[in-house]
Amino acid sequence: MFSTVGAIGGFSLLSKPYSLCSSNSNSNSNSNDPSSPTPIAAASSSPSLLFLNPRRRRRRHGHGRRSSFFFPLACAAELASSGSSLDQKKEDEARLDRRAADWRAARTYKESGVIFEGKVEGSNNGGLLLRFYSLLGFLPYPLLSPSHSCRDPLRTIQETAKDLVGSSIAVKVIEANEEEKKLIFSEKDASWSKYSSQVKIGDVFDAVVGSVEDYGAFAHLRFPDGRYHLTGLVHVSEVSWDLVQDVRDFLNEGDQVKVKVINIDREKSRITLSIKQLEDDPLLETLEKVIPQEDQQMPTAQSLSSSTIEPLPGLESICNELLQEEGITDVQLGRQGLEKRVVSQDLELWLSNVPAKDKQFTLLARAGRQVQEVHLTTTLNQDGIKKAVQRVLGRVP
Questions:
Q1: Structure confidence at residue 180 (pLDDT)
Q2: Closest by alpha carbon to 299, among 291, 308, 311, 290?
Q3: What's an example of a GO molecular-function annotation for this chain (predicted)?
Q4: Domain with 160 in it: what CATH number?
Q5: Among 377, 370, 301, CA closest to 334
Q6: Which DSSP letter does residue 393 get?
């Protein structure tokens, strides 16, 4: 007799004593007989022992455990995953809806021109990254208010930008393109809306020269709060009464200057400035502004036919044309002189600020450093003389 303990699928099985012989063996057979079947042979051939084969039993039991335990867990995991996917889908849809709504809001801000307070979240070489609700927009450095760069002119704009991270800036939306994912802001436009009403023609401002171009120089206007909110252009023709061939001979970036507002284009958000108009033009009234009479011996007024005065090249043709204008009865040349500075190489005619008196009016012709008085006898008023001169200059090459 032989006792067997088998581990089947994690369970312990204790078989009761049984014969290792086959069922048709003689019960009187001696178990110690070498001719008797070995226990293993008997076990492998006994149908009753096939069920107790540990490997076969383990596979059956293992399969049963997977069927009854792991399958429900897999179903639960799948259901949980399905629920998580649904939640994620809802979050994605909500996020898309929110972004779409924010793009609509950005377009509304652009169309209405309403100022938006945006938080600066970062910067790069080109500008600032500005938060607009769930969107991130861009504020290029050229569209920043000049107040930042004027605060410390020695610092680069990139260094200044780092200090702005985390602060809020008043801006306007100037581009909102959802398809191209372009959201662009301008602080200059917001500053114009806030401060341009404080600027009027004829106002004089302290200013700092910004960039200098061939056609003029940009100047940042200092407001009563001490900050520089707006920028205007000093055209090359308004830099100086002297002949200006290169603006950089007169103005450089960072120069402190005084400027006068001579024009405001509110539709285009432009301010035109002048430096020279803060000084009197030495030729606006009389020749004494250039050459005081006591310092120079000047000939008296002569008629056009006189040969004692050589007129400026081209001036004789202009005088003859002036005599063709209705209301002008006589043209006479007056004193000549030389300026200390060159205003223009070309021949120019300047009207005096002094109104016509006793039918007499004085024009000033100038070319290079040479100046020539031209006296008119006329019944025209100052505005009529101006129009007559304009017509003559249009006819004379």
A1: 93
A2: 308
A3: nucleic acid binding
A4: 2.40.50.140
A5: 301
A6: H
Locate 59 and state its tokens.
């596979």
Could you tell me which residue, 310 or 189, shows the higher pLDDT?
A: 189
pTM > 0.70: yes or no: no
Are 256 and 202 contacting, i.e. CB atoms less than 8 angstroms apart?
no
pLDDT digits (tens, 9 = 90+) for 155-181: 888 999 999 999 999 999 999 999 999
pLDDT band at 281 (very low <50, low <70, confident <90, very high): low
Residue 41, domain member (yes or no): yes
96 or 356: whose pLDDT is higher? 96
84: enclosing H helix or E strand: helix 71-112
Same domain as 376, residue 291: yes
pLDDT, residue 44, reads 39
Same domain, 390 and 293: yes
- Same domain for 300 and 383, yes or no, is yes
Is the CB of residue 303 less than 8 Å from the CB of residue 329?
Answer: no
Q: Which residues contact 80 (CB under 8 A, 6 or more apart)?
A: none
Query: Residue 369 CB: number of other CB atoms within 10 A?
Result: 15
